[in-house]
From TrEMBL:
UniProt-listed SUPFAM superfamilies: Class I glutamine amidotransferase-like
Ranges where the DJ-1/PfpI domain occurs: 2-159
Domain of life per record: Bacteria
InterPro entries from the UniProt entry: Class_I_gatase-like (IPR029062), DJ-1/PfpI (IPR002818), INH-QAR (IPR052158)
Name used for this protein in its record: DJ-1/PfpI family protein
Gene Ontology BP term (one): regulation of DNA-templated transcription
Length: 205
């Protein structure tokens, strides 16, 4: 299972790197989480520079793709050549987006008339793209999920783990990163956010 986190210049570290950390709690052969970027190196909104570990072409072939957010997302969606490289397909991939990453999915036509989650800054841009925005941290329809707010990133990662590896694996990953003394409450709250959007067979009792 290759999970590619799309990461562009101006990216938000909390979105891309928290998801990276939670997803890497899965330790099994073949499980690989990468930061996929259009260039070999990208710099965050706060000046942190990272080397990409996958290309956009590799992301197009991944089993799952998360689209991170950032301060230059509107430049990304205005770049026709760049958008043409984002060949995502919910028929064969699990796809998620965080905050302004939701705008990328909207412009790619992957949300259709489905409602979505995003951050408050991006909300009007997503609405302009014809997608209704929910006042909640997480929503999914089939193989496409969106999350709103930087600290909703673990919800998105947990949804992907639950879909791929099962509920127990998602709980364990969240438990590891949750604050000490709040672990049970944190896991329960996070799972309550994603459980309504999991297939019936995977929904926790």
């Amino acid at each position: 299972m290759h999970i590619a986190i799309l990461t562009f210049d101006g990216f938000n570290e909390l979105d891309s790197l928290i998801a990276l950390g939670v997803l890497n709690r899965i330790k099994r052969p073949g499980w690989r989480v990468t930061l996929a970027a259009p260039t070999a190196r990208v710099t965050s909104m706060n000046g942190v520079t990272l080397d990409a570990t996958a290309t956009l072409e590799e992301a197009a072939q991944a089993g799952a793709v998360l689209v991170g957010s950032g301060i230059r997302t509107r430049e990304v969606v205005a770049d026709a050549a760049l958008m043409a490289q984002l060949r995502l397909d919910p028929a064969r991939q699990l796809i998620g987006a965080q905050c302004s990453g939701t705008l990328v999915l909207a412009r790619l036509g992957l949300l259709g008339t489905v409602l979505a989650c995003t951050d408050l800054t991006t909300k009007p841009w997503v609405q302009e793209a014809g997608v209704g925005v929910l006042d909640q941290p997480f929503f999914a329809d089939g193989n496409v999920a969106t999350a709103g707010g930087c600290l909703a990133s673990p919800y998105l990662a947990a949804w992907l783990i639950a879909r791929s590896e099962g509920i127990a694996a998602a709980r364990d990953a969240l438990h590891y990163v949750a604050p000490v003394g709040e672990k049970d409450d944190y896991v329960a709250r996070a799972m309550a956010a994603i459980a309504p959007y999991l297939p019936a067979a995977a929904t926790p009792a």
